[in-house]
Amino acid sequence: MGDIEKQPQNSNIALPIDHHHNLPQTKNQSNFNSQINKKSSLSIILTQIHAGYFRITLSLSSQALLWKILLEPIKDAHFLRRVFTMIPSTAFTLLWSLSLFTLLTLSFLYLLKCLFHFDKVKDEFFNKIGVNYMFAPWISWLILLESSPIVPPSTIHYKILWLFFVVPIVMLDVKIYGQWFTKGKRFLSMVANPTSQMPVIGNLVAAEAAAKMGWKESAICLFSLGIAHYLVLFVTLYQRLPGNNNFPSMLRPVFFLFFATPSIASLAWHSICGYYDSGSKMLFFLSLFLFLSLVSRPLLFKKSMKKFSVAWWAYSFPLTALAIASAQYAHEVKGVMAHAIMLVLSLISVLVCLILMIVSALNIRMPLITRNLDSKHKSNTPTT
């Protein structure tokens, strides 16, 4: 087994084709080389991918939910709300399909990583930042389920899928929340960082999805679990304790999760109550204040913007969550200012997501192609 695993890693160096053009290459050798290159490429992809890549699916699935809400016909809708009715429903269907395809692809690749590189998955789990993004795939599936145009909340398929996606969240909750107050090296004051809000978001999204299908008791249970830990976590992060001050500057886009959590909480409580009451409004205003506090400090994100990384996708999901909350708030208040806020936040959210898609497409690098080009370049360049 060891020889088989090491062979792909050295394939581009061991093959004599690039160094000695005078040697003949048989058809069997060509097929063998092709198989090695494919295995090498897949191995590189699996080792490089991590749970943080699910920031992309969080963004796309939440965008699909935003578009679904904005395109819903509303009786006596405000004229600013009617602007979105000009968008064809086909656009929402295409966006939802893209979200589904992306989530299926990333989930399949991460499943392969769990099977063939489980040691690296364990390293993620024991990392105080990486472990929190293990909630991201399940949150993405729940949001995609909420925005689904083909699975209504009243169907049995919705309920079965909800259970399938929520069970891993609860299992991770027991592990993560339990460590916060029982395990010495993983006390909350020592491991708390902005990504620690992902478990809370998982509980709140699950509560919102449960309320939409009529499971109020399950929704209240999950909401209480999430909001209780959010209060403790928010105070801990606000204190800027020495244990959580060494946060990498390249990951500062995840600071936007500070206003994503109260936004999701306002939506979850709205789904439980059936209308946008004072509790939902207070959570929305809190998220709006935190959003303004962060965008007024652009220098905080200067270092993280020097070079593109998947962490940039952390901007999109919180903005979309805030835009969805503003849409529900505007629907309840029916004022010009509320609808203006909704329009601005929705446009910013869509624009940021679109820019990230374009920038990501321009920065995609296939590992196999890169390695082959590097090996050819090295073969033609004298070493010193």
Automatic annotation (TrEMBL):
<dbReference type="InterPro" id="IPR030183">
    <property type="entry name" value="SLAC/SLAH"/>
</dbReference>
<dbReference type="GO" id="GO:0006873">
    <property type="term" value="P:intracellular monoatomic ion homeostasis"/>
</dbReference>
<dbReference type="InterPro" id="IPR004695">
    <property type="entry name" value="SLAC1/Mae1/Ssu1/TehA"/>
</dbReference>
<feature type="transmembrane region" description="Helical">
    <location>
        <begin position="312"/>
        <end position="330"/>
    </location>
</feature>
<keyword id="KW-0406">Ion transport</keyword>
<feature type="transmembrane region" description="Helical">
    <location>
        <begin position="91"/>
        <end position="113"/>
    </location>
</feature>
<protein>
    <submittedName>
        <fullName>S-type anion channel SLAH1-like</fullName>
    </submittedName>
</protein>
<keyword id="KW-1003">Cell membrane</keyword>
<feature type="transmembrane region" description="Helical">
    <location>
        <begin position="156"/>
        <end position="174"/>
    </location>
</feature>
<comment type="function">
    <text>Slow, weak voltage-dependent S-type anion efflux channel involved in maintenance of anion homeostasis.</text>
</comment>
<keyword id="KW-0812">Transmembrane</keyword>
<comment type="similarity">
    <text>Belongs to the SLAC1 S-type anion channel family.</text>
</comment>
<keyword id="KW-0472">Membrane</keyword>
<dbReference type="Pfam" id="PF03595">
    <property type="entry name" value="SLAC1"/>
</dbReference>
<feature type="transmembrane region" description="Helical">
    <location>
        <begin position="250"/>
        <end position="270"/>
    </location>
</feature>
<dbReference type="GO" id="GO:0008308">
    <property type="term" value="F:voltage-gated monoatomic anion channel activity"/>
</dbReference>
<feature type="transmembrane region" description="Helical">
    <location>
        <begin position="336"/>
        <end position="362"/>
    </location>
</feature>
<dbReference type="GO" id="GO:0005886">
    <property type="term" value="C:plasma membrane"/>
</dbReference>
<comment type="subunit">
    <text>Homotrimer.</text>
</comment>
<feature type="transmembrane region" description="Helical">
    <location>
        <begin position="282"/>
        <end position="300"/>
    </location>
</feature>
<keyword id="KW-1133">Transmembrane helix</keyword>
<keyword id="KW-0813">Transport</keyword>
<dbReference type="InterPro" id="IPR038665">
    <property type="entry name" value="Voltage-dep_anion_channel_sf"/>
</dbReference>
<feature type="transmembrane region" description="Helical">
    <location>
        <begin position="219"/>
        <end position="238"/>
    </location>
</feature>
